[in-house]
Amino acid sequence: MTPPTSATPPAQPQHHEPEASRDLVGIGIGPFNLSLAALAHPLTELDTAFYEQRPAFDWHPGLLIDGATLQVPFLADLVTLADPASPWSFLNHLKARDRLFPFYFAERFHLHRAEYTDYCRWVSENLPGLHFGHQVDAVRWNPERDLFEVDFTQLDTDGEAEALGRTYTKNIALGIGTAPYVPEPLRPLVEAPGVPVIHAADYLAHREHFLTADHITVIGSGQTGAEVFLDLLKNRPVGREGIHWLARTEAFAPMEYSKLGLEHFTPDYTRYFHALPEPVRDRLVPAQWQLHKGIDTDTITAIHDELYRRTLHGGWPDTVLTPGVLVRTAGRVATTKVELHLEHVQQAGRSRITTDAVVLATGYRERPLDQLLAGLDPYMRRDGSERPRIDDQYRLLLDPSVTGAVYVQNAERHTHGVGAPDLGLGAWRSASILNSLTGKDPYPLPSRTAFTTFGLAQQPQIPHARQQSQMLTPLADQKVSSRPVV
Description:
Elements: E1 14-15, E2 24-27, H1 31-40, E3 48-52, E4 69-73, H2 90-96, H3 100-106, E5 110-112, H4 113-126, E6 130-132, E7 134-142, E8 147-155, E9 161-169, E10 171-174, E11 178-180, H5 187-191, E12 197-199, H6 203-211, E13 216-219, H7 223-234, E14 243-246, H8 267-275, H9 278-287, H10 289-292, H11 297-309, E15 319-322, E16 325-333, E17 337-344, E18 349-355, E19 357-360, E20 364-366, E21 405-408, H12 413-416, H13 426-438
Parallel strand pairs: 1-9, 2-3, 2-10, 3-6, 10-21, 12-19, 13-14, 13-19, 14-15
Antiparallel strand pairs: 4-5, 7-8, 8-9, 11-20, 16-17, 17-18
Helix pairs in contact: 1-13, 7-11
């Protein structure tokens, strides 16, 4: 966009006239709304459109570290667990790329992140109805038309406003994703220019600079922190590694990856979790951190192997790995260094370290919906913590006068549990949304998905009469102690 001169008034964005109403408008095109768009594609009775402000599909580009893999199998693609015959499956992507036989012989169950991103980009470039370079500005309910109004700005290749538009829709699907989380003590440093403190989301863009720093600190004990630590460790000189790895958790712990443990990422558990009282749900989510914030065992093994390799000729690597540590405050020392003030939780002791660079592997938080949905605020129902209430079909609970539905994707952990951000439940959730939206069952879903029975009120039906006696007595007929079972 040519910058205006004093003699030329600034160019005003053109206004697009409203078009006929749609059945569904998706806001955001990450993996989850891309899954919804792919599964909606064959439903010719639906008129859909999806909007994304970025110019093209991109997924955590700063974390595509060489060799990094997903923590879910390749079957957790955009469509397969709802429709294995879909043309938008990962296997069909391989076929289109002439890579089926190499994948077959590689015997890989978990994809490289770069490979998953390439697959999603392939879908996004071939699937109709996706509008990149469109920033959604506001959503309102129009009671006169019984439709949602969605205002957007069309952006040019430089990200500048090019045209304004509005579309009307009966339903909305929010898939605006998450944003990097920076702890309060470190925000001033991340926002200050020239200070070498970055979130891991930007790691690859700064990697070469960080590799030359004398001392680096990685903060965060999850998979991302482990991958960043391992990448730095492998690419720094033996005996002069100069890396601190700090974490709030009590240990650098493995992710829960047992077969029955993984059943927490099934629709059965999601239904169970949604039916729990709000205070119970709020206690459960942080207690289940190892289900989604631990480190996979292959990465832990690779870290230990690399550390061990560096002891083969005597001595220890110049690394410090300390869990159970909080960063209380942080500040700049001189112009190029950072001082971190630490507190050890169990020892109640305090210390400080000086470092040349900091990588924050502190995770992501759901993007708040309030600004985008300010026009719907009078209609929204909220829980005791002022969060949006979301029903079992992934719809915001709105005033009955609103006849349309607003579906949410990956903004419902507080109501649906740890599986909300999990790629393995993406296709199932998309299929559930489309079944709800159409009032039909274009994607028949299984009634049972886990061997575990979560909760006494959800005992499965046992077909054989002789086995009926093995079922638990209904809760109302039991004498239950008031003491909780631990």
